[in-house]
Write a structure and sequence with these properties.
This is Protoheme IX farnesyltransferase. This protein has 312 residues and is mainly alpha-helical. The protein has 14 helices and no strands. It is globular and about 50 Å long. Bound molecules: protoporphyrin IX containing FE and farnesyl diphosphate. Farnesyl diphosphate (FPP) binds next to helix 2, helix 3, helix 6 and helix 7.
């Protein structure tokens, strides 16, 4: 009888199996479920919300509060990502990009992934409730439900607008950060929410364009599969234009000075150019560059808010 083929070795996955190289392999598998690189940027955006909520330099106590709030948001966001990996294990197994995930490969059982997600969510919520404030805990928990249930379970398999509506949960971090420091939700935080909300469609659809075969196999109704490449590229371009306008709002509202404005104009022009080129002259390589640029755009834009806040 032929021996049962053993599964191919897990490739170094994009979400940190490689980055977690020094960790024992079991720990690395759990860590990979938290989609570490995505969650890092999420926590960074939450941190900027915290920084902007405190006029001038934070006190020692405020630095402490920021650290605890960041940890709490990190844990709950990781829990949401792990829950997504559990729910989508069969879909992930059909896509090249995600087939390496420990849940897709059956290396972690459903029970283990669920327990891990519940543990992180409980620990993060407890931190936020006892050491930050109840509003932040409830808003973060609502964000967990928004991503893990509303986006992953309800919207993603049903509508190509899944990531537009579901993007609202990804846009919450600055609101969570602001609430952690003030116990309130300020207009400034809502402006940052709007920026991430408008950024999400070009961020995701650029990726979906060059991963279209993966999404076709997955059975998910992503825009390039349901409406084709040209329509998706037009949407990407239009969103980069609206995003450009949205990114001017912190300056118009008086939250920032010319330092942020210069960064917003430069980064926005870059993203619009990518959107335009992609629309007019598509290639997978350009779509990949546009996706990568989306990450640079958001990271530097929020870093500019930080610099601006402390310089002015
Ligand atoms: C519903 C909203 C969103 C969707 C559907 C989405 C989708 C995706 C997908 C599919 C990837 C995987 C790329 C790959 O495997 O090569 C990705 C990567 C990434 N996303 Fe998003 N994203 C969303 C929101 C966000 C938000 C709000 C942030 C941060 C604020 C973010 C940050 C990142 C980062 C940093 C990566 C790169 C990960 C890596 O290099 O390993 N995303 N996104
Ligand atoms: C509490 C809190 C702040 C929660 C944040 C929720 C969260 C992790 C939002 C990020 C969005 C994200 C990882 C999208 C990936 O899309 P996908 O899930 O469609 O990608 P996939 O195909 O890689 O699974």
């Amino acid at each position: 009888m032929a021996p049962t083929p053993s599964p191919a070795p897990a490739p170094a996955g994009p979400f940190g199996m490689a980055g977690a190289g020094a960790l024992p392999s079991r720990l690395a598998q759990f860590y990979a479920l938290t989609k570490p690189r995505v969650v890092q940027l999420i926590v960074f955006c939450a941190f900027i919300g915290m920084v902007l909520a405190v006029p001038g330099l934070p006190s020692r106590a405020q630095w402490g509060l920021m650290a605890i709030a960041s940890a709490g948001i990190w844990l709950v966001a990781g829990a949401a990502a792990a829950f997504n990996c559990l729910v989508e294990r069969h879909i992930d197994a059909r896509m090249k990009r995600t087939a390496w995930r420990p849940t897709a490969r059956g290396e972690l059982s459903n029970r283990q992934a669920l327990a891990f997600s519940a543990l992180l969510c409980t620990a993060g919520s407890a931190l936020l409730y006892w050491w930050v404030n109840a509003l932040t805990m409830w808003l973060t928990f609502a964000t967990f439900v928004g991503y893990a249930v509303v986006y992953t379970v309800i919207l993603k398999p049903r509508t190509p607008q899944n990531i537009v509506i579901g993007g609202a949960s990804g846009a919450m971090p600055p609101v969570l950060g602001w609430a952690a420091m003030t116990g309130d939700v300020g207009a400034e935080a809502l402006i940052l929410f709007l920026i991430i909300f408008l950024w999400t469609p070009p961020h995701f659809w650029a990726l979906a364009l060059y991963r279209v075969e993966d999404y076709r196999k997955s059975g998910l109704p992503m825009l390039p599969v349901t409406h084709g490449s040209e329509y998706t590229r037009l949407q990407v371009f239009l969103y980069t234009l609206i995003l450009f306008a949205g990114c001017l709002m912190p300056f118009v509202y008086g939250m920032s000075s010319w330092i942020y404005l210069a960064a917003a104009v430069l980064l926005g022009t870059g993203f619009c150019l990518y959107g335009y080129w992609l629309w007019r002259d598509y290639s997978d390589a350009l779509a990949r560059k546009t996706f990568r640029f989306s990450l640079v755009h958001l990271s530097l834009l929020f870093a500019a808010l930080l610099v601006d806040h402390y310089v002015f």
